[in-house]
């Protein structure tokens, strides 16, 4: 019996069939496109409807300080304005003062047997007092300026938002509604408003005085510069000298007769 060698277990691969059958690399584009559905791309651009809307831009509120509402019954409360505008609005109201409108005859209210009305003479005793023709009611100018949002306590908005018109309680001795509103202690809401009013008014006056002082100093300095320039022009003209130099740059050592004379006068003055 012929023994098998190790080579008999391995056969050489027939490469002729592989070489005889070439790979078909051509693709029928038309057939493939008609038979195969291309899935939608996840990167498809969004339409204007599907695109998320932009965050609206908040425009800053503009306030016409020269045309603020002064009727206490119609004007907007200070605490309803943006925080960054409140000081400016308070100063505008302080500049104009309380709304103390005097009428030939005020409307009457109360029972038929005891009709009462607002009296313009009350302005002299209570300088902070205001009158609203639209509500026929009295208001407090100071508490309007420095009042916080209503606390819900009964009567807390009588002189700031609702208005007071129970005229029979005015000039009623110790029970006078105006005196009760002012309070008996220095820490009352009204007296605190008085302090805030004084502080802001003094601050405003200091700012105005400072600006006025700076303006006067600036005007005087400008006049002096103008006078010096005119004098230099006259002198150079009479002497027949040239005004400008060959090099008037900042690095130049000689900027010409006109500028050099001005510098000389500034050093003397």
UniProtKB/TrEMBL annotation:
Composition bias of kind Low complexity appears in: 32-45
Region (Disordered) residue spans: 1-54
Organism of derivation:
Corchorus olitorius
Q: Which SMART domains match?
A: ZnF_TTF (SM00597)
Which PANTHER family does its entry note? OS05G0311600 PROTEIN, PTHR45749
Please report the stretch or stretches of sequence annotated as the TTF-type domain.
114-213
Q: What is this protein called?
A: Zinc finger, TTF-type
Q: Which InterPro entries match?
A: DUF4371, Znf_TTF
Taxonomically, the superkingdom here is Eukaryota
């Amino acid at each position: 019996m012929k023994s098998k060698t190790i080579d008999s277990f391995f056969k050489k691969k027939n490469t002729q069939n592989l070489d005889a059958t070439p790979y078909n690399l051509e693709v029928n584009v038309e057939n493939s496109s008609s038979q195969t559905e291309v899935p939608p791309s996840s990167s498809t651009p969004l339409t204007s409807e599907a695109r998320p809307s932009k965050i609206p831009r908040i425009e800053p509120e503009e306030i016409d300080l020269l045309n603020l509402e002064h009727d206490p019954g119609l004007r907007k409360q200070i605490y309803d304005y943006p925080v960054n505008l409140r000081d400016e609005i308070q100063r505008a109201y302080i500049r104009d003062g309380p709304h103390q409108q005097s009428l030939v005859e005020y409307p009457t209210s109360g029972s038929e047997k005891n009709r009462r009305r607002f009296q313009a003479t009350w302005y002299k005793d209570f300088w902070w007092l205001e009158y609203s023709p639209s509500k026929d009611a009295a208001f407090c100018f100071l508490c309007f300026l420095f009042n916080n949002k209503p606390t819900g306590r009964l009567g807390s908005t009588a002189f700031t938002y609702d208005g007071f018109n129970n005229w029979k309680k005015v000039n009623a001795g110790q029970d006078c509604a105006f005196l009760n509103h002012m309070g008996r202690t220095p820490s009352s809401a009204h007296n605190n408003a008085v302090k805030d009013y004084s502080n802001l008014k003094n601050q405003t006056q200091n700012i105005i005085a400072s600006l006025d002082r700076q303006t006067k100093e600036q005007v005087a300095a400008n006049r002096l510069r103008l006078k010096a320039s005119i004098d230099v022009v006259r002198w150079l003209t009479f002497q027949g000298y040239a005004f400008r130099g060959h090099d008037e740059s900042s690095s130049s050592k000689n900027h010409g007769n006109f500028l050099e004379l001005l510098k000389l006068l500034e050093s003397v003055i």
